[in-house]
Amino acid sequence: MRFNRMLLSATLVLVALVLQVSVLARLHLPGAVPDLVLLTVLALAMVYGHVSGALIGFGAGLLADLVPPADHAAGRYALVLCVIGYLAGLVKPENGQLKSATGPMAVVVAAAVGATLLYASVGALVGDTAARHVGLGSLLFTAALYDLLLAPFVVPGLMALARRSETNPLGDTNTSAKTADVSAGWLSSGTGLRIGSQRGGLRVKAAKARVARAGRIKGVKRL
């Protein structure tokens, strides 16, 4: 991953995690908690691709596993977001831009449902039956609903920010190339000092001078 990707991803994940823990989790909404971290991973994965999406998802999930008030085994949510980030990155278009909002919204719903099912499945494997007491159907419905309502305010902005961070280095390179071209043009034509032409002109002048000198010498001898 590039440095600008790592820096932007780490910053966005930290901000999303702080908002989720300090604001969204304290709303005490029925069912699931709106997953701002999941939406952040989805937005970055749909711009950076499946490899970066998996790495970002793993880091974000591991951080969520360690930040209080986490009450589950460390690495559980990291596995979930790693898989979700990888799958979301597979739908990344070639230019990193989606033509309509239908695709991202479908990805959000599928990711919310898939993350809840995968989280519950991993919990069942390690003996955590909390999802059974809450009700898996209620968790699936509320997770998809909350994330879908929150996605239009989060995903497009984060995707645009990620695309801008990707295009800035290229823009700087193009600007440098243009500056170099302008500098080369200024040196070669703007000042009127063309090195190649100047050397050729000096050679022609030197040859003419030698011919004229030889003519004068011959003229003296004739006299």
TrEMBL record:
This is Rod shape-determining protein MreD. Keywords: Cell membrane, Cell shape, Membrane, Transmembrane, Transmembrane helix. The gene is mreD. The chain crosses the membrane at residues 36-62, 74-91, 103-127, 139-162. It is found in: Cell membrane. It is a multi-pass membrane protein. Belongs to the MreD family. It comes from the Bacteria. NCBIfam families: shape_MreD.
